[in-house]
Amino acid sequence: MSGSRGAASRWSLRRRVLVAVLALLALVATVIAVLGVASVHRVLTQRLDTQLIAAVERAERAADRIPDVGGERGPEGGRGGRVPVFLAIPGQPVDTLAALVVDGAVERAGVLAETGVGQPVDTADAAVLADVPADGGVTTVDLGAELGAYRVVAVPGAGERVIVTGLSLDGVQETVARLTRAMFLIALVGLTFVAVVGTVLLRRALQPLDRIAATASRVAELPLDTGEVVLRDRVPEEDTDPNTEVGQVGAALNRLLGHVAAALNAREASERQVRQFVADASHELRTPLAAIRGYAELAHRVPEPVPADVAHALDRVESEATRMSRLVEDLLLLARLDSEGGVTGLREEEVDLSALLVDAVGDARVAGPEHRWRLALPSDPVVVIGDRGRLHQVVANLLANARVHTPPGTTVTAGLEPAAVPGGVGVRLTVSDDGPGIPGELLPHVFERFRRGDTSRSRTAGSSGLGLAIVAAVVQAHGGAVAASSVPGRTELVVDLPIGRVRTPDLVPVGRPQGDQRLR
User: What is the pLDDT of residue 431?
Assistant: First the structure.
């Protein structure tokens, strides 16, 4: 039962309203039909009882004039019959029942046929007439399958006789059955008509709600999380009438969209100010940081001996200035990529990813000789359209992330393979390792800015938390996508890039890499 309620709760509003209306109409039609049939049955029965009283009076008078004694008469009045002689008197309708009860037993019983001749009633069926009380009251008896139900009246006759007269209920029952069938058909036709017309009217009445839902769906499909968002969609004016329930919903949705648009504009303005501040601050910091590094290098070139503690301090100043310069450059790059959809300053040129990956892994081997580095490349070069320097930075950051956040002895594999991207064929760049993995709570946020791993993925190289954020920004600027998956012993960072306008027929038939190429 709970399952049926759950299924009904998933019905559309149109279906629920229509079913409710049809159920109410069916209930009303049933009540009217029952009351109507009962009323007609009562009226017809009362009319039959009135006819029965008249028939009883005629039978009683005839029985007094024609005593049923001195032997039995046949069906035509002759001797030897089982039909009361007062049955076939003028005025009695067809199917009139007459019976003579003597000493509590039915002596004779017959029914008037259409020919005007009485037909005897089977003794077993007529036995029930002996129990009819002789008080002049109307009683219903059943005379078997052949004769059916009768309304009968028993009155005392001469001597110990009881005269029983009855009229058949077949006519009443047939009329009631016809009326029941007629009312059922009328109700069925009426409910069908209401269902069809109601469906049309409900569909027309709920069209404003459909338009409101369509507006909400269009807004829900917009990317509202980042960037400048313009909410132009609104519920039409004719669907915002406050005098109707649907209009109230439409007006409320328009107010909500207005508030959301204002909040998004405020968010975009705030983000724009932050990006501009970061870009300006990064740009302004480049000069003093370069000066600090220059003065530190100049101090190292002084011919006079420098105290050891001063030399150490100068080394630290130069090291931290270099590190801060890299951080400023990263921030400036992110600010530039964020502006104008991330396309500012990107070059478009043919980039051989296979060669770029070989060079980057070679550099990573020099930077991390304690790791094992592997390459998995297709047999033919993979060429895409993009900014060579930025794509090299993507690969370098991915390899540096694997090197910095995994212990010595970890195997890092970089590979290329075909991939399906929106708009056609692309290439997939993967960097995987068999290290301890990324914590589950950090995995969904690895490409966000200033996100760092815990102690299981060490920060010995001084990670700023911007490496993978730069990867995501550069890849998105090239029309690609990034993803990450990790379990203990298997971490994989994936970059999908569109090939661009370059024709590279060798890429499409390439299957899985033809084995691993390992740098030694």
Answer: 93
Residue from 397, 393, 389 nearest 351 by CA = 389
CATH of residue 403's domain is: 3.30.565.10
Predicted local distance difference test score (pLDDT) of residue 213: 87
CA-based nearest residue to 440, from 457, 428, 415: 457
Q: Which residues contact 447 (CB under 8 A, 6 or more apart)?
A: 468, 469, 471, 472, 482, 484
238 and 365 both lie in a single domain: no
Residues of the chain falling short of pLDDT 50: 69-81, 343-344, 454-462, 501-520
Q: Which two tokens stand for residue 370?
A: 């304690």
The C-alpha atoms of residue 301 and residue 318 are separated, in whole angstroms, by 13
Q: 360: Cβ–Cβ under 8 A, 6 or more apart, which residues?
A: 392, 395, 396, 399, 414
Helix, strand and coil percent figures for the chain, each rounded to 5:
50, 20, 30
Residue type, 101: V
User: Per the structure, how many domains does the chain have?
Assistant: 3
Q: What is the C-alpha to C-alpha distance for residues 337 and 109, in angstroms, rounded to an integer? A: 112
pLDDT of 419: 81
Give the pLDDT of residue 451: 66
- Would the pTM count as exceeding 0.90? no
Angle between helix 245-300 and helix 207-220 axes, rounded to 10 deg? 0
Q: What SS3 class is residue 360?
A: helix
Torsion over CA: 11, 13, 17, 22 (sign): negative
- What range does the domain containing 89 cover? 13-174
Which DSSP category does 90 fall into? Answer: T
